[in-house]
Amino acid sequence: MSYTSPNQSRSPLYNLLLATGLLIVLGSLLAVHEMESQGHIITGMNNQIVWGLPHVFAIFLIVAASGVLNVSSIGSVFNKPAYKARGPLAGLLSIAMLGGGLMVLMLDLGRPDRVIVAATNYNPTSVFAWNVLLYSGMFAAVVVYLWTMMEKRMYPWSKPAGLLVFVWRFVLTTGTGLIFAFLGARQAYGSAILPPMFIILSFAWGLAVFHIVQSSIFAWNGIRQDEYVQKRMRNLMGVFVVSGLYFVVTYHLTNFYFSRQSAFEYFILRDGGIYPQLFWWGYIVIGNLLPLLLIFHPALGKSKSVIGASLAIILGGFAFLYVFIIGGQAFPLDIFHGYAVSSTFGDGEIAAYRPSVYEALLGLGGLGVAFMITAIGIHVLNFVPREIPTKVGHH
Amino acid sequence: MSEIDTQRRNFLKTSAGAAAVLIAPGFMLFDIAHGKPQGASNKVRWGMLIDTAKCKSGCNDCVTACNRENGLSGGTAATDSQWIRKIELKDISSGREVSLPMMCQHCENPPCVDVCPTNASFKRVDGIVLVDKHRCIGCRYCMMACPYKARSFVHEPLHDQNPDVPRGRGTVESCTLCVHRIDQGGKPACAEACPNNVILFGDLNDADSEIAKKLRSLSSVQIRADLHLNPGVRYQGI
Ligand code: SF4
Ligand code: SF4
To answer: A109, A324, A335, B64: which one has the fewest Cβ atoms less than 10 Å from its Cβ?
Structure first.
């Protein structure tokens, strides 16, 4: 089984990658320090766009962290050996992305120094407070699950632990969707379709991240992927992309149906400048059509095009969240229906948002943390998927 | 660092006992500041009735009074705090124009309180909705949840605060209904400042109060009544 150990991980390139990751994380901490001493005034966020770029990164990471566990679940809960072999890596990725996402959310707070307050003063009606529990529970569940998968005497427990994780991540992503679904007064949110939509999107995003990491590890260690398994996983990703698209289309169509929301839909899909651009080009073309082409076109679908498809899905996911989170706030609240309104506080106006470098650095820091946890995890523990090895290269 | 220290000193100045604030914010937070604890009563529900017919477009006196009272800068950049704002409305079908002040509506079922993870947003027993500045972590979820866009986030370090009205960088704030005045038997600064007597302040629960009588005899509306939040601020003439 020598092929499973990440032999190359001590190479200079590995160190260089780690150093880059560290640099990105340090950059984000520097940005946070500035945001703390000067206030959020140095970000692009304001009283109209209260959640900005950091939330796009954080929510992507958290949603993908839940989705990537699909790989583990298919392995343990549905007993598919090829997925089982990939379970530990999926678990590690989940922890890594959850960690990165939560770091971004926490450091964007107006008073991150008080985060302990969130733990000691618990408001049971707050979806945010539920999510604090859901996230920490998720960490614990995945750690236990990893343990049952990686230590021989714990193997018998891996199925129940897998089941727990399986259920937990559904609840977790539902919770993420509920954060928005409970915002009943905002045209963009307050829809019951949001939790299931986030769950389906999480499958595609999580699997895309998994593919990229897996392919990198395989390439790094000179392992050739089993083609049959690769084809199955690739097609599965395609199915998730199509299902996600179905939910997004339904979400927009139902919004059109409610006349109070239709002005918002015209804004986000047609008239809103950057938002429709990002929606159509970013989410629909890059995030859906391109990956579907790469996955299902008979001449394509090889390893490289799967990586391309995965990258496109991730980019599309970011575009989608940018439109959803920021575009959703940019459109003015409909406080006085039937009136044209104006004020000094942005009533009746499209809110402007230009993300600052500090927010971008903070968001990237989340990716950096996720990367570092993954890279170090793979290095220290044995997370390389073991399967019918069609080994190439030398050892 | 020194900025934080000044803030802290200001907080200490105002709250004779931070411990009291933490134990029972609904009752203590603002009373203690004056050493005259006249606990909020659950028999009372404070509210306002705003007569838009008398409100003049272009008049900003309530806003100015609020800024002065609460130590706000008065700036109107997208990152500045605005606890009360004037909204100019034009009925799309008839073209009729209305001008009115808009502030926290002190909802009976406030979404801001429901969503707040730390219980920093809370409703006093007399219906006033407040933010405990010592407890708010600045997540801004309440701003997302408020249907009236009544809340502001403090984007910059603060200087020269009014000791009666604690504020803090990185926390969220909104109209307190001038709770520090109410607890002294006074009324909100905006209501006092309006030259046209547009804003009528009083106890919605007291059948003999002027506001309760008017609400009984005149037609008034709750803004976005469809959300069933039962705001304490009501409007006439829209
Ligand atoms: S108006 Fe907004 S801030 Fe005020 S109580 Fe209602 S939801 Fe809360
Ligand atoms: S910003 Fe403060 S008051 Fe508002 S929900 Fe968050 S912790 Fe509560």
So the answer is: B64
